[in-house]
Amino acid sequence: MDEITTLWIETLKKNGSAFLRVKGKSMEPFLEMGERILVSDVAPQSINIGDVVVFNCRGGLQSTGVEIIVHRIVDKFRFSDKLYFVHRGDNARLLGMSIFAEDQLLGRIENGGFRRIKARMQTDILARKFFIYFFILKQLLKKTLQIQTDRGTDANG
After folding, report:
1. What residues in the chain have per-residue pLDDT under 50?
2. Which contiguous run of DSSP H or E holds residue 103?
3. How far is residue 19's CA from residue 139's CA, in Å, rounded to a whole number?
4. What pLDDT is stored for residue 122 in this prediction?
5. ∠ CA 78-84-87 to the nearest 5 degrees?
6. What is the DSSP letter of 145?
7. What pLDDT is stored for residue 95 in this prediction?
8. Is the C or the N end of the chain the one with fewer CB within 10 Å?
9. Does CATH place domain 3-123 in 2.10.109.10?
10. How far apart are CA 32 and CA 76, in angstroms?
């Protein structure tokens, strides 16, 4: 992370809230590029479907190289004692979803989008559930392969 991002995260954690300027168009029309938003530090358990959150995707499940992302929560689930969030920008295609873990959550948007009457949410419950099941299947497959690899190492060792 660069120094400014690190300083912003420290300020958020210390003060319980911090302002952030929107970069990009993924949340249009709800949030516009350049709009100033207030982010509050919240517990992951308090996040609801429909909330707009800020998270750190660096080192995440599907890291894009960008560090801070502002997206809407379209679903959430618990897997292996960890809370996961399915997110997508309001301006994204239906299947333009991804997942992040509770430890990547930075905060929830407490303002923003006031100039727009209603946020556009184009979510299909079947697509969301398929995405979650695919994620869980992928994680279980990784664990199974790791167990088989470990057994093969033990047998050869």
Report:
1. 60-66, 114-123
2. none
3. 35
4. 45
5. 135
6. H
7. 67
8. C
9. yes
10. 25
User: Token digits for 92?
Assistant: 């994204």
DSSP labels for 42-55? --GGG--TT-EEEE
Residue 40 has what pLDDT? 95
- Would you state the pLDDT for residue 115? 42
The model's pTM:
0.72
Q: Return the bridge partners of 21, or none.
A: 36
Q: Encode 130-141: b = buried (16+ Cβ within 10 Å), e = exposed.
A: ebbeebeeeeee
- From residue 7, give the alpha-carbon distance in Å to each of 17, 26, 53, 138: 13, 24, 19, 35
Residue 127 amino acid letter: A
The pair of three-digit structure tokens given for residue 98, joined into one six-digit string: 């991804």
Tell me the two tokens of residue 99.
């997942």
Q: Report how far residue 68's alpha carbon sits from residue 6's, in angstroms, rounded to the nearest whole number.
A: 11
